[in-house]
Each structure stands twice: as structure tokens, then as C-alpha cells.
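Incident log, structure service

09:12 report received: a user says their structure output differs between two submissions of the same chain.
09:20 pulled the input from the user's history:
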Amino acid sequence: MSTFLLEIGTEELPADFARLALPQLEQLVGRDLATLRLSHAGIYCTSTPRRLVVRVTGLPHRQPDLEEERKGPPQAQALKDGEPTAAALGFAKRCGVAPEALEIRDTPKGPFLFASCLEPGQSTTDVLATQVPLWIEALQGRRFMRWGEGESRFSRPVRWLVALLDAELVPVSLMGSDPVVTAGRESRGHRLHQASVTIPSAEAHTDLLAAAGVEVDRDRRGALIRSAVEAAASTHNADADLPETLFQELIDLVESPTLLEGHFDEHYLGLPAEVLSTVMRSHQRYVPLYAKGHNLDPLALDARASLLPRFLCVSNALPEAAASVARGNERVLKARLADAEFFVRADRNVASIDRRSQLERVTFAEGLGSLLARTERLEWCTEVLLEQLELSSSCGSHARRAAHLCKHDLVSQMVGEFPELQGAMGGKYLVAEGEPYQVGLAVLEHYLPRGAGDALPSSDAGAVVALAERLELLLSIYAKGERPTGSSDPYALRRAGQGLLQILWMKGWRLDLLALLQRSCQHFAELLPHFNVDAEGLTTELADFLRQRLVSLLEEGGMDIDLVQAVAGQTGDQGRVLSDPEDARQRVALLMELRSSGQLAAVQAVVTRAARLANQADLPSSVLSAAAVVDPGLFEKSSEAAMLGVLNKLEPFTTSSANDRYRNLASGLSAGAPALAAFFDGEQSVMVMAEDGAVRKNRLHLLGVLRNQAAVLADFSRIMG
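09:34 re-ran on a clean worker, output below:
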């Protein structure tokens, strides 16, 4: 068994491509080796900023021979007077066998010609030489480029290839590149090392590159970086601000990680901590250090209580240049912080209320006016939400003020330079000007959640304005006529819809979204007459969009798909689902609990059997009481009276608003199983479809009421067994 090594050497790769190419390579190589009949023990893919590496272990020296039997023409067409016809000769030629080697075999459709074919296996070297260019060509990524006069496209120009099967050179050529790249044994070490590295065999690759200053193993580089950062932070009694996105990027920016430390002047701690950390993390790829156990005030305008005047930097420099590189990083950071200091000072010279008026000069979207117009629509949405939500008067006052001012920082110099600080800077400026802390916090939080896994607003006022922000966006863009399609969602409407529902669930707020949409769509139709909005149609469309978002959120949250569909899976369900999204979430959660405990099957059995017959009657689904539709005087068996008793016990739960109503309903349905069994199968069982029309209708109504009562919990016909 052999080991295959492929190294694709390039100019400096973008960090995201160096990472995202690896699963693509693993999938391509694994798929093609299986197709090509080459077994293997394992595939390992790794990368550095200047190379992608594939190592396949346990490869055979050649493919196994392929033996197969092929079916040819019918005997009647293949032979004439005992001699092979042109059809038989052509079949033999295609199969690579002599005509006399063909066999006649009986089949269900009569006798046919058959050939036993043997395709000798190729050497593994020949197979790989053909496949490697195809693997490189198949890789996908953003902003691919061509270079020279060649037609090859790749993330960055390919400059060298190493392709070895053990110690044997695999003859690979990339004919589309300029110049043509041919595989050899020459690799390159760290970019600050001048000498090339000769790779005698696949097994020697990692150790030889390590000696040349390159840590090929991506996971190993990550472990080195993580360990060094944690050790340095511990030395300073600090917490390293190293989010996963920055950590992954650092791994793919260096081939030989060296941790450096730098300092900045303490007077810059007069800037907000978010500004300092954004400059360091997002713009310089540094790791900020926070005081151990710090309690960061999100609206503080300075970082003296939280941030240390030092940073960590992961460098690709040689150890002897560490001090010089650290000083260079300090100079760069000083210039960036001086810019940030200027922006904050300039912003503080303009009152936030004056910045709000400047929003008039910034267009939000074609046909939707300025950012100021959008803010005014957002204020209207806030007011409508406050009318429906039972919140304190102080919360309402803070939410209204926050909605009025929430977009002012979009025209600030700081947010112009660092867009990721929108909301945060707006809240800080407002509190510094004397606005209530809750107003500033609501301005900061109205952007939350920004994406999957992000924090949700902690304050009620912030949650209200966050709901208003998402509602206004959905209404405006839908009124404009734009919709998310496939993978295209430029306004992040799906994220807005999911955020709206997540906030409601997190707060436990009971909000009639359908009524809110009806009122809001009518208002926006009047507000934006140039779009000729059909208010009723817009309401229906947005309602179904939010219902779909609700279904998606529940499924992504680990709820069983059939249970989610049973509660919210149909367009016709949107009225009840959107009139109280929290209610829908609770019902799915209860069904999950019942399934986990094994109780759901019993409830489902009761309901399914009843519904199957009840569907033959014309009882409206809104009938939840047996009193008006079932006549006890028509009962012939005691089982009918027992069924009526079950329905009467269930009825209060179907109309109750108590928190435990669904649990009680589920328990009652389960407890009704014996009565239903007796109704169908016991000594006192009845023939539901009796000849007497009145008796038949009475019995169908019994089952219909049971079906309707169960539907208050879920559509049991959509639940899998």
C-alpha cells in the first residue's frame, strides 16, 4: 500500500479560501477514488497561506481488474444461419472480445447474446496523473483569477506542484496555466526562507517543511496559536478577545505562527472599548486584552474600566525580527487609533438630534425615500406595537424616544469608518448627551439579533424597537415589490422575519401578528401610493412568509419536522399561527415532549381513528362542543354515552386560556382511548355508518367533535407514526 501526496503551491491565498477549499478537496478526492476503484485508508487535507495539501494513505499500486458481463442483441438479430451478423460483430468489437467468445443465454425476453468483458486495471500513478488537474479545476471560491496568457482560473496563481506516490513522481501538468506547471519534487518553505525544499517521498513532506519554517498541519497551527494567546493573556491576568472568526483567519494568515505583544498609549483608553477592539480585531487582526473578569458597560464612552493598553499579534515573521515587527504594528495601530479619536471628537461636536435631520440627505432605497423617512415609518411601527403589547408607560416612553433617534449614528463619522459599530455608537452618544440609559440601550439593541446565534435585546424598549425595525423593513421592501428568491436576499428579509419571531419568543410576548400585518399593510399602501400596493394581498403574502420563517426556525431548533408541520405546516394555518406565534411554539414543544415520553402514539391513535370516519360528515371544524350537534336520545349503546362523556371533559380545555390547557387536552385525549376502543370494538361497539340516517349522523358528529377538539392541539393527520 502506498501514500499519495499532492501539494498545490500558490501565491498567498485569501484566508477564507485556504479554509473552505479543504472540505471540497476531501469530497472530490474521496468521490473520484471510489469511482475509479482505488481503495484507501484515509484522506487528509490541510492548507497554509501558500499551499493546499492532500495526503491519501493506503492506496493500492494499481486498480483491480474490472470484470463485467454485457448484454447484446437478441439471438434472432445476432445470428443468421449460425453465422454472426453485423450486429453481433459490432457488439463483440465494442466489448473487446472475439466473436467466437460471445455466448447465447436465455432471458425472460428470450435468448440474447452476452459477452464477458475484462478491463485491466491501470496503475495508480496513471490514474492520479489524469485526476489531479481535474480536482484543481473543480475547486470553487470567490474572486477567482486568470494569470499570464493561460486559461486556468484559481484563487491565486499556481506556481508549483508536488505529486508523489511514495517516492515515485506522478507526472501531472497544468496545461492551462502560464507558464505550464509540471509536478516535481521541489516545494517551498517559509516565504522568508530563500531555498527550495526537495521532497524525496510523500512521508517526508511534513518534517522537511517544518525544518524550512512551515507548519503544514492547519490544526496544529491553530493549537499553537490558541495555546500562545491563552498563555500570554494569563501572564497579564487578562481575557483574550479572540472570537472564532478571527481565530480561523489567523490560522490561515501564517505558516509559522509567532506570538508578538504590543502596547498603545493609555490615553487611547478614553475611546470606547468597542472602537478599540474593532480597530484591533477587524482592521489589524490583533487580539485585544480585557481585564480579567471585566464587566463591560455597552454604553460607556471610555475603556478604562475594561481594556488593557496592550494587544497580541500572530505574526509570520522570523523570530529574529519579532521586536521590529512588534514596533511596526504599534505604529500602525497608533495611526488607526488617532483616526478613531478624531472621529469620536468630531461626532461629539454635533448633537444627535441634529444628525437625525441629516438622514434626509441619505437615500434608503429607490422609491422608499430617505433614511429619515424610514425612521418615521419605524416610529409608526413602534407606536402600533406599543398599542398591542402590555408594557409599562416608562418602557413605552423609552421605546418611542429610541425609535425617534435610532438611526442618527448612520451619518456619524465613526460609523462611516466602522459600519459594524452602528447602534453601539448611537447609544453611547445619546447617553453622553443626557438621554436616559434605557433609550441608549434600546438604540444599541434595536439591531439585535444581527444573525444566527447572535444575542437578543435584553431590554423591553430595545425589543420593541427591534421588532419595529424588522417590521418596517419587511413592509417597505415587500411594498416595493422585491422578494427573497433562492439564495438571493439582498435586504436580509429572511433574517428580519426570523429575528422578529425570535424576539417574541424570547420575551414570551403574545402578539397578534396577523392583526398587526393587516393594519400595517393598509397604512403602508396609503403611505406609498406610487407602488399601487394591494393591502389585502400584501397581508396574505407577508403572513405566509412569516409562517414559513416560523416553520424554519422550529425545524432548525431541533423540533421534529412532522410535528412542526402538524402545527404550522399549511398556508391555511397562518391565521391561528400568526395570531399568537408563542402559542404555536408551545404546542410543538409539548408534542416533542409527548413523543419523547412515549405518550404521543396513544393520543395519535385515538384521534386518527376518529378522524378517518368523521371526515365523511359535514361537521364544521369550528364545532368544539357536542351539546348542539349530538342527541343523546339517539344513543343505542352505552359506548356512545361514554364517548360523549369524553367530549364533555375535553371541551373546557379547547376554549381555555390557561397555561396548562394543551397538556390537559393531550392527557384527556390519551385517557379517552379506552372509550373510543369500546365505541369501535367492545361488546357495546356500534356500527358508525348505520342504516338509520339520524343515528349515523349522530355518531359521525361524536367523532367529528373529537377530531375538532384534537385539532386545537395539532393536525394529527400530519404526524408520522
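09:41 both user submissions now match this output. Likely a transient worker issue. Closing.
09:42 reviewer note: The first strand starts at residue 2 and ends at 10. Residues 322-348 form the longest helix (27 residues).
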